[in-house]
Amino acid sequence: EAEATADPHVWLDPILFAEIVDRLADVFADVSPERGDAFRGNADAFAAELRSLDEDYRAGLESCEGSPLVVNHAAFGYLAAAYGLEQHPISGISPEAEVDPARLAELRELVEREGVTTIFTEELASPEIAETLAAEAGVGIAVLNPLEGLTEEQVDAGEDYLSVMRQNLGTLEEGLGCA
User: Fold this and answer.
1) Which residues in 23-139 belong to E strands, given as ranges?
2) Regarding predicted confidence, which is higher, 92 or 135?
3) Phi, psi of 60 (to 5 degrees)
4) pLDDT digit string, tens, across residues 49-99
5) CA distance 107 to 143
6) In angstroms, how far is CA 110 from the centroid of its own chain?
7) CA–CA separation, 14 and 57 (whole Å)
8) At what angle do helices 36-61 and 161-176 cross, to 10 degrees?
9) Residue 46, phi then psi, degrees to nearest 5
10) Which residues pair with 70 in a beta bridge?
11) What's the gap between Cα 6 and its chain centre?
């Protein structure tokens, strides 16, 4: 199996996601012109919600600009870049990748030097290595959701992109000390 080298998690930046939604509406309208107005209207409404989400992230993370975002794998690069955070992944794009012991030592040093209080794991990846790093460094753990697959239970409970991203914002504000 080939190792992924590019971060596919573009949807974690609401403004980039709004651009994707906009382009998809155009494609759908081209394919089905009789429903073009509906596609465009839905895309415009969702893009407005995404812009509002972006404003909330900017306000919520403003005081944490430059904060190290230590995560178990490199899924949050777009989000970090959008809001002035510095992503420091334990492993690369693939959460199953082997973790280099030197990388763990480097991150422990970063955690201690920068006063990091939280290591972020995620719902779909094993938290074991992140938990080990957190225990060794004496810091906490918090869970982010990269929105790679909502469970049936989450969908039935009314969870969607916007609600999960707002939960992530609260988790980041608390874990980074921006709240």
Assistant:
1) 68-73, 86-91, 118-122
2) 135
3) -70, -30
4) 999 999 999 999 999 988 999 998 889 999 999 999 999 998 876 666 678
5) 18
6) 21
7) 9
8) 10
9) -70, -40
10) 88
11) 15
